[in-house]
Amino acid sequence: MVPRSRPSPLLAVFAVVVALSLSGPVSGTDSRSPLRIGVVLSIGGLQDHSYNDATYAGIQNLRQRPGCLVDMVEPGDASAIEPALEHFARQGHDLIVGVGIFANAPLRRVAERHPDKAFALFDSVVTLPNVLSILFNEEEGSFYAGAVAGLLTRSNTVGFLGGMVSPVIKGFENGFQKGVAFVNPQATVLVRYAGDTPAAFNSPESGTRLGRELAEAGADLIYHAAGRTGLGLIQAARQGRFLVIGVDADQSALAPGKVAASMVKRLDVALDRAFRAVADGRFKGGVLTLGLADAGVELVFSRFNKDRFTPLVQDRLREVEAFLLHK
User: Fold this and answer.
1) 53 has a pLDDT exceeding 50
2) Is the distance from CB of 212 to CB of 149 less than 8 angstroms?
3) Percent of the chain with pLDDT over 90
4) Could you give the CA distance from residue 59 to residue 270 in angstroms, rounded to a whole number?
5) Which helix (H) or strand (E) holds 287?
6) CA 257 to chain centre
7) pLDDT tens track for 169-219
8) For the chain, which domains are there?
9) Residue pLDDT, tens place only, 5-28
10) What is the dihedral of CA 235, 194, 136, 138, to 10 degrees?
11) What global pTM score does this model have?
C-alpha cells in the first residue's frame, strides 16, 4: 500500500477532528452534558489496518454509548500531536487520550500544564497524578505468536520484522523469540528493523524489501510489529512463499491465505477502560497493564489457514495459552 499524502502538521490538527452529537446521559456524569473525549491517534494515520484502525474501532464503540461525545485527531506527523492534545485540553474535554510512544513527551507537557484534566496514554508511561498509562503485554501476546510460528514453520527458520528500534518493539521481538524457543528449540529466528526514526513505521516499501530479504534467508513465516511498514511485508507475501503473522488488528483479509494469524492489541478495550474510569468517577493516575487474562491482547487465527492448525497444533497452543495464563 502506498502512503497517502499528508497535510501540514498544523492543518492536520484541526482538519481531521470528527465529532458525534450526544444522545443521552452517562452514568456518573452530569446528565445535562455529555462526557467529552478527545483522542489523538498515532502517526501513520487511519487505514493502516493495524494500530490506528484498532483504536478507531474503540472510538466507534464509544460513539454508540448514550451521552458520549468523541472527537478525534489524525496527526500528520509527530509534531502535530502536542497541539492536538492542547486543543482538547483547552476545549474542556473530560478525558484526553494520546496513542502510542510518540505521544509520550507531548502528553507529559500538556498534562503538566493542565493538572485538572484527566489524560490517558496508550503503550507508554507518564508518571503524573492526572495520567492513566495503559500498557499491553505485547511480550505475552508475541510469545503466543512465536509459538504459532515455531509450530507452523516447515523450514525451521522464521523471521521478525520490527518498525522503529524502540523498547516497545523490542518487547515484541523478545516475546516472539521466547515463544518460538518454547515450542521449537531447533528453530532459528531472523530479525530485521526498518529504521530508528518514526518513519520506520510508515514505509511499506521497506516492509516489502525486508520481507523478501528474510524469505531469501530461509524464513517461511514472518511476524511483524511495524505499523504501515508491515503492509509492505504482507504485500510481499502475496508473491512469496512465506506466511505472515499480523499485528494490532486482524490482518488476514489483507492477503487471504497468507496471514496465518494476528496478534491483536485490544486498544478498544483500553479506551473503554479509560472511559469507564472517568464515567464512574474513579479515575486516577497510574499504570495499568492489559494481557491475555484481561482480554487486552489476543491471537486471532485466520479462517483461510485452517488446514495448518491441525489437532496436534491446536493442542500445543492450548498448552501455551494455559502456560501464559498461569505462569
Assistant:
1) yes
2) no
3) 77
4) 11
5) strand 286-290
6) 22
7) 999 999 999 999 999 999 999 999 999 998 999 899 999 999 999 999 999
8) 9-137+267-294 (3.40.50.2300), 138-266+297-326 (3.40.50.2300)
9) 333 333 333 333 433 333 333 333
10) 80
11) 0.79
Report the distance separating Cα 226 and Cα 38, nearest Å.
25
What single string gives the DSSP state of each residue in 111-170? Answer: HHH-TTSEEEEESS----TTEEEEEE-HHHHHHHHHHHHHHH-SSSEEEEEEEE-SHHHH
- For residues 279, 285, 286, 291, the Cα torsion angle rounded to the nearest 10 degrees is 20
Residue holding cell 510512544?
101
**Closest residue by Cα to residue 250 from 299, 313, 201:** 299
Grid coordinates representing 38?
A: 478527545
- Residue 82 one-letter amino acid: E
Query: Which residue has 446528565 as its cell numbers?
Result: 31
Amino acid 326 reads: H
